[in-house]
């Protein structure tokens, strides 16, 4: 006898619905499927409901989520014992669109149902005192902006927009008002006023009675964004979701959103899972940033999730960037996204003058400083005029490695086998992959000679050398180390904005989304760093970072200056960034990607086999390749590369072998089925010496 699956139900049990298919909260691949329970006397059952169910042992219970409701049992379960649900927890249940997205995530990212479901679920617990915990970012932003006053009125909000801003709004607002699931790629140069377009779109969405989700690439940017939204809409409408909140704050914010206490959510990538029952607009600022790709299971892409949720909810999506990803620009070119161009700065400020300092020439002249002659001279001039300087270096720590000049020994992590970065502040060599720390020995462990030396430049050393070169200036650093203490990153940015600092040195944390009126000079200390990473996206990341950091200069009346220090001045990515030539870079990069079969013409899928013994990891990767060819046919052999050790060959206790494949878009479904089958067979085997993890379009190939 056939049975009917129901996917759309109100918040009361539908007539005739007597069974529920539940995803149970356990992380084993062996139980990554649906378990059928009787509804019994439980009221208020619906798709997405969080339920407690009996599981495994007779008295054991677990929580789970209802993914399907059934009118009757499937044939294969008839005659078997079916236990009933215990209870429903409506307060922590998922929305139905979340269940739809969870199903899609399981297939797209090769995660378990429960991994996807927990992305949407609250973390933490209610306060024992019952007092709501307000995130510091909202509290401090409110105090900074003086937003105790009423929000600005709609008429004032629409005060003079530029012609480009009005054109962008004219394209976007009808989609919001008509609940059309359209994706807009807002390509605006740095300082073109994209945020004002975001605010106008958010206003239209709120007027329609629907929620807004605003994603930013760095948690450090949340404070500035929150301040802008509070100034526009008032404090009470905002909630924040990101990983730096305490567990209690995250729980309270989740509940407040779920219960309708906020209609705007701002945060980093995890905010894409905000528990709104109705979302009308997703905004992804700096959509090109790799931080939107998760590096832990489930390895989701927040941009893809936003687009998927928007389709399920009939919501609009704005993807904003001064340097859109190659993939996004190609999708716009193919008609999947609608591209909107903003080519001028909103206040008609000129784009900064950019010049290259060839550090090879500097060395020949005997200059061994971290500053070229041109950068040093311009820093003196701008600082003397009372203006501010930003210095960009995308490498934290004091030095990039510690080595013996006598025998060439390099300090490496005992777990990951990668070189350790020296951090002078804590006098330790640190692994930037696993976090392990070690003292630097007085003598070389290899040859026994004293005098281990530090090589390479990091932000910590750059800060010290800058203080030495400009002893009368106020200098600060902003990187992951400086921002580790809660609130410290926000304080540095507030002090810099208030003019309490003269020079700010930082990693990519200072490269995007920040707007400082007094900054007229940006110096890029080592523009070549990201080009040396073994990844096909290295040229794209280099172009994006240089363009973004250059955009911090001269955003008001004074025209900005940018000095790019490099040993590779003829590289096409650096040349395009210096000339502000996005189209030239895009065409060149797209040509290379097509020739080599990289995204957007394929998905790059990375399978990592890991095991306690290196030989088992190698055998596992080889086995995966043969299993895939067996399922897909011999033609797949050309698309699956030869497996080999990962660049970081050992992480923790496990050895790691990588297997790369370039999956043409036309073959995506066949590969998804094959990879899912291989993963299930390997990771559910009773006895196996290795396991595998699958990552689609990883942000890093390390």
Walkthrough of the structure:
This protein has 702 residues and is α/β, with parallel strands linked by helices. The protein has four domains: 5-120, PriA, 3(prime) DNA-binding domain (GIY-YIG endonuclease, 3-Layer(aba) Sandwich); 136-342, Rossmann fold, CATH 3.40.50.300; 353-396 and 458-592, Rossmann fold (3-Layer(aba) Sandwich); 602-696, ACT domain (Alpha-Beta Plaits). The chain is built from 19 helices and 28 strands. The strands form six sheets. A seven-stranded parallel beta sheet has the order 9-10-8-11-12-7-13, sandwiched between helices. Strands 1, 2, 3, 4, 5 and 6 form a six-stranded antiparallel beta sheet that branches. A hairpin with a 2-residue loop joins strand 26 (644-651) and strand 27 (654-664). Helix 1 packs across helix 2 and helix 18 packs across helix 19 (668-683). Mean pLDDT is 87; it is low at 1-13 and 144-153.
């Amino acid at each position: 006898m056939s049975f009917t699956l129901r996917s759309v139900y109100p918040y009361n049990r539908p007539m005739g619905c007597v069974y529920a298919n539940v995803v149970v909260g356990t992380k084993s691949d062996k139980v990554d499927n649906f378990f059928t329970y009787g509804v019994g006397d439980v009221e208020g059952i619906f798709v997405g409901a969080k339920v407690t169910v009996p599981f495994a042992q007779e008295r054991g219970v677990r929580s789970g989520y209802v993914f399907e409701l059934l009118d009757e049992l499937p044939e294969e379960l008839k005659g078997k014992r079916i236990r009933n649900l215990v209870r429903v927890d409506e307060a922590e249940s998922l929305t139905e669109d979340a269940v739809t997205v969870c199903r899609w995530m399981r297939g797209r990212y090769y995660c378990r149902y429960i991994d996807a479901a927990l992305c949407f679920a609250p973390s933490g617990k209610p306060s024992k005192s019952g007092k709501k915990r307000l995130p510091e970012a909202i509290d401090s932003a409110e105090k900074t902006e003086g937003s105790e006053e009423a929000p600005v009125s709609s008429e004032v909000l629409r005060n003079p927009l530029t012609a480009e801003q009005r054109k962008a709004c004219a394209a976007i607002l009808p989609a919001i008002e008509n609940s059309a699931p359209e994706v807009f790629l807002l390509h605006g140069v740095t300082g073109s006023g994209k945020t004002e377009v975001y605010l106008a779109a958010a206003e239209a969405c709120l007027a329609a009675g629907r929620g807004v989700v605003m994603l930013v690439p760095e948690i450090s940017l949340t404070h500035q964004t929150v301040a802008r939204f509070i100034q526009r809409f008032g404090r009470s409408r905002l909630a924040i979701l990101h990983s730096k909140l305490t567990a209690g704050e995250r729980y309270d914010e989740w509940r407040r959103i779920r219960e309708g206490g906020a209609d705007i959510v701002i945060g980093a990538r995890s905010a894409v899972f905000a528990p709104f029952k109705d979302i009308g607009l997703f905004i992804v600022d700096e959509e090109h940033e790799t931080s939107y790709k998760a590096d832990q299971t489930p390895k989701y892409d927040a941009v893809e999730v936003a687009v998927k949720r928007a389709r399920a909810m009939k919501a609009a999506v704005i993807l904003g960037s001064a340097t859109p990803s190659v993939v996004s620009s190609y999708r716009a070119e193919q008609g999947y996204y609608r591209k909107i161009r903003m080519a001028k700065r909103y206040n008609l400020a000129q784009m900064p003058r950019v010049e290259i300092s060839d550090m090879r020439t500097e060395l020949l002249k005997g200059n061994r400083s971290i500053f070229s002659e041109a950068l040093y001279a311009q820093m003196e001039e701008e600082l003397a005029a009372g203006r501010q300087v930003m210095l960009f270096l995308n490498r934290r720590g004091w030095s990039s490695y510690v080595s013996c000049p006598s025998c060439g020994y390099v300090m490496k992590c005992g777990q990951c086998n990668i070189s350790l970065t020296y951090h002078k502040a804590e006098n330790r060599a640190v692994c930037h992959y696993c976090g392990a720390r070690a003292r630097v020995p007085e003598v070389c462990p290899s040859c026994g000679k004293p005098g281990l030396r530090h090589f390479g430049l990091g932000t910590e050393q750059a800060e010290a050398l800058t203080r030495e070169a400009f002893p009368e200036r106020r200098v600060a650093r902003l990187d992951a180390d400086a921002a580790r203490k809660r609130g410290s990153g926000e304080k540095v940015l507030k002090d810099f904005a208030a003019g309490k600092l003269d020079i700010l040195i930082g990693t990519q944390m200072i490269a995007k989304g920040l707007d400082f009126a007094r900054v007229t000079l940006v110096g890029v200390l080592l523009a070549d760093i990201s080009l040396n990473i073994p990844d096909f996206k290295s040229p794209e990341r280099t172009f994006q970072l240089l363009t973004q950091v250059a955009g911090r200069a001269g955003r008001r009346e004074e025209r900005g200056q940018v000095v790019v220090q490099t040993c590779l001045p003829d590289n096409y990515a650096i040349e395009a960034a210096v000339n502000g030539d996005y189209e030239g870079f895009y065409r060149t990069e797209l040509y290379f990607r097509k020739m080599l079969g990289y995204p957007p013409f394929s998905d790059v899928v990375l399978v990592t086999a890991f095991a306690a013994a290196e030989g088992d990891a190698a055998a596992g990767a080889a086995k995966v390749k043969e299993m895939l060819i067996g399922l897909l046919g011999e033609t797949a052999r050309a698309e699956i590369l030869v497996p080999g050790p990962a660049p970081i060959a050992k992480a923790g206790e496990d050895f790691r072998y990588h297997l790369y494949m370039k999956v043409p878009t036309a073959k995506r479904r066949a590969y998804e089925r094959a990879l899912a089958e291989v993963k299930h067979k390997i990771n559910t085997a009773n006895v196996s010496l290795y396991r595998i993890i699958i990552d689609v379009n990883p942000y890093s190939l390390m």
